[in-house]
Specification:
The protein is an alpha/beta fold. It contains eight helices and ten strands. β4 (about 70-75) and β5 form a beta hairpin.
Length: about 260
């Protein structure tokens, strides 16, 4: 009996021959010839040492900077998207900055509400309901009316996540979410990202496609479904967890804390 054909999930991010410039100077290329496909429902972990271009890759992917060469398509629309009528397509992707990147003179509640105020014509009741749900998700309700500058690093990162989820993106990019966090906070992030990846809780059955960057791949071995690493201005796809464990590249072993030298 003929077996049914398995079709891959649709691509949400497609890069072909893409060059990525530094956010500080776009002419300074940090990555070249990036060929990368992210499919709906994927959970990617992209590893690399400090300065390898992880943040710049995510900023370009989110549409904050344009590719310096090649072609990048998001949901089959060529990026960057500047046309007003296509803004809704760009808003299908969200970005969580490593340090939260909040407006320090606003409260946590006000920071989370910003995307609504800019992009949604929601009434106050709908806005309050959505913001409160995100405050509860990130366990920030008790700090909702504290100005962002008075939050510790861990809570700023959580508030950044809540703000990025405000418009319910289908793809979420997270720049080094575990950087500088303790074990308790690490477990919190792993649990919340598992919820997002599976569509549980606040996502109401709508799984989010995730891309995280990391300088340590160990926490992601059992969570991410696809892995890649950045080295010498190049993007290298590893594959799944099995390929990661058996990969012989020295940098990969180092990102798994098994290397003996530093780049």
């Amino acid at each position: 009996m003929e077996q049914p054909t398995s079709h891959p999930a649709p691509a949400v991010i497609e890069m072909t021959g893409v060059a990525v410039g530094s956010l500080r100077d776009l002419q300074d290329l940090v990555l070249e010839d990036v060929n990368w496909t992210v499919r709906k429902g994927d959970f990617w972990a992209v590893g690399g040492m400090h300065g390898s271009g992880k943040s710049d890759l995510l900023f370009m992917t989110a549409g904050l900077t344009p590719p310096q060469a090649g072609c990048y398509r998001l949901f089959d629309f060529e990026m960057p998207i500047f046309e007003g009528e296509l803004l809704k397509e760009r808003l299908r992707i969200g970005l969580v900055f490593e340090d939260g990147h909040l407006l320090h003179n606003l409260t946590v509640r006000e920071n989370i509400a910003l995307p609504f105020r800019y992009h949604k014509h929601a009434d106050w009741h709908e806005l309050e309901k959505r913001v409160n749900a995100l405050l509860e998700l990130t366990e920030l309700m008790h700090r909702a009316d504290v100005t962002a500058i008075n939050l510790g690093r861990n809570l700023q990162k959580r508030a950044g996540l809540a703000r990025a989820l405000a418009l319910q993106p289908e793809v979420l990019l997270l720049d080094n979410p575990l950087g500088g966090v303790d074990l308790r906070e690490l477990n919190w992030w792993m649990n919340i990202l598992q919820q997002l990846s599976t569509g549980k809780g606040i996502m109401e059955g709508r799984p989010v496609t995730l891309v995280v960057t990391a300088e340590d791949l160990r926490p992601w071995r059992e969570r991410a479904s696809r892995f890649a690493f950045l080295q010498n201005k190049r993007f290298f796809e590893v594959g799944g967890a099995r390929e990661l464990e058996h990969h012989t590249e020295a940098l990969v072993r180092e990102l798994l804390a098994e290397g003996t030298t530093k780049n």
